[in-house]
């Protein structure tokens, strides 16, 4: 039996099946899985025996040297890094060779551009072949990068632009701004119509198709899912999540924020202030519903309402009973909510990006209208929010797991009350009122998150 090789914490090896004659690997017995620096990852071939095609950059600090690789895809696996971040990765099987010995190992593909070593050798790859001396280094033969045609590295290598999809049916102000600002920052930004996507759902090679063509692997997806297609839109976002793509807002948060009843239950569970709310199915409970929210005046709100539509103010008990009876006659799902009179037809829209309130405005309803939505003729103006309002807005967005959220607050006598958490907030009114470049702030957060998760 061949005695095991001795490795230090860093060693040279080759990957002959990937046409990589030399790569310097960090040996880490604390890591279970091996990892390889890769980009432009794409699944090809038949779903029953898929392959992965990717670009490998074997030389640290020199992305001019690249190798186009293809390997069998054996799995998709959640891997947690040393900083606690979890990422879903493709897993390939290939052969490593050291000192005339070789054996197959499994390797995950990820972005290691910020790491000193372009390959990590985990304990699964060592098995009986290697013993590790953690204080030693490069105990095996020096292979070096002489096999590569090494160009001179540029002093300031350009940052690699990201490939980003804006998932939306709308060609509106917010969509155009996201595309325009993303391209100005050097990224490739594609607008993808959600309803034209379809999905291949299988274990090893799930994919998203668009107009009959398989979509490329995106670094990030910015979902802008309309209320009318929440279920299908969330399914498409969920498919991108399955692919391991970073989605600015996840499918669960989008779905939960759109279900007004579930949303209020989540807010209540999190201890977040909101107007007293009641819900019932039976017409026998109408009187109790009205009493639970403190009587008239009160708000009757369709669960499927958006942009202020399907929201009615009932100023008397009789009016409330009539509205509730009418909604029940239409077999519509609705909830009843306390009317915060002291808000005087005004609310605060806080825009949360990356766990911070980055912009805020006060919205006031049109003359004679209690609704403050800009879509209903309301107006907006700059506002300075309190620390308590800031904390409530951030906590509300976090409750739904949303990295981008419009949180609507009312100023009540006993503190801020959350009206709604919007997973697809528009930027037009907020930019006009505050003068802030909101897509720029969003892209800065996306870039930071992808770098941190690398």
From TrEMBL:
Coiled-coil stretches: none
Keyword Membrane: no
Domain annotation ATP-grasp: ranges: 264-447
Superkingdom to which the source organism belongs: Bacteria
The entry's keywords: ATP-binding, Ligase, Magnesium, Manganese, Metal-binding, Nucleotide-binding, Protein biosynthesis, Ribonucleoprotein, Ribosomal protein
One example of a Gene Ontology biological process annotation: translation
PANTHER family: RIBOSOMAL PROTEIN BS6--L-GLUTAMATE LIGASE (PTHR21621:SF7), RIBOSOMAL PROTEIN S6 MODIFICATION PROTEIN (PTHR21621)
Family under the similarity heading: In the C-terminal section; belongs to the RimK family.
Record-given protein name: Probable alpha-L-glutamate ligase
Species annotation: Pseudooceanicola albus
């Amino acid at each position: 039996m061949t005695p095991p090789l001795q490795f230090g914490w860093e060693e040279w090896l080759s990957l002959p099946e990937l046409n990589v004659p030399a790569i310097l690997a960090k040996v880490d017995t604390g890591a279970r899985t091996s990892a390889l620096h890769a980009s432009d990852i794409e699944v090809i071939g038949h779903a029953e025996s898929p392959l992965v095609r990717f670009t490998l950059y074997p030389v640290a600090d020199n992305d001019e040297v690249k190798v186009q690789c293809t390997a069998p895809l054996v799995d998709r696996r959640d891997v947690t890094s040393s900083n606690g971040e979890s990422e879903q990765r493709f897993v390939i099987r290939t052969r490593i060779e050291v000192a005339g010995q070789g054996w197959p190992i499994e390797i995950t593909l990820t972005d290691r551009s910020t790491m000193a070593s372009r390959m990590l050798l985990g304990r699964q790859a060592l098995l009986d072949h290697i013993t590790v001396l953690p204080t030693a280094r490069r105990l095996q033969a020096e292979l070096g990068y002489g096999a590569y045609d090494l160009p001179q590295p540029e002093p300031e290598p350009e940052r690699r632009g990201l490939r980003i999809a804006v998932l939306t049916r709308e060609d509106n102000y917010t969509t155009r701004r996201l595309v325009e600002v993303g391209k100005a920052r050097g990224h490739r930004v594609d607008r993808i119509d959600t309803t034209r996507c379809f999905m291949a759902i299988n274990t090893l090679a799930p994919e998203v198709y668009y107009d009959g063509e398989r979509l490329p692997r995106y670094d990030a997806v910015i979902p802008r899912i309309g209320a009318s297609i929440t279920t299908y839109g969330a399914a498409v976002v969920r498919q991108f999540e399955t692919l391991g793509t970073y989605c600015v807002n996840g499918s669960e948060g989008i779905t939960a924020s759109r279900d007004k009843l579930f949303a209020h239950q989540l807010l209540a569970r999190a201890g977040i202030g909101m107007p007293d709310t009641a819900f019932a199915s039976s017409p026998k409970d109408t009187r109790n519903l009205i009493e639970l929210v403190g009587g008239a005046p009160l708000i009757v709100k369709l669960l499927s309402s958006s942009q202020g539509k399907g929201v009615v103010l009932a100023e008397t008990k009789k009016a409330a009973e009539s509205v509730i009876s009418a909604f029940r006659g239409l077999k519509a799902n609705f909830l009843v909510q306390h009317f915060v009179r002291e808000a005087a037809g005004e609310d605060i829209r806080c825009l949360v990006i990356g766990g911070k309130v980055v912009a805020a405005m006060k919205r006031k309803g049109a003359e004679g209208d209690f609704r403050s939505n800009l879509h209903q003729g309301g107006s907006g103006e700059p506002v300075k929010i309190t620390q308590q309002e800031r904390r409530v807005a951030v906590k509300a967005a976090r409750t739904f797991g949303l990295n981008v959220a419009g949180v609507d607050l009312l100023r009540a006598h006993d503190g801020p009350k959350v009206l709604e958490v919007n997973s697809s907030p528009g930027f037009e009114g907020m930019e006009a009122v505050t003068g802030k470049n909101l897509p720029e702030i969003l892209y800065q957060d996306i870039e930071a998150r992808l770098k941190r998760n690398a």
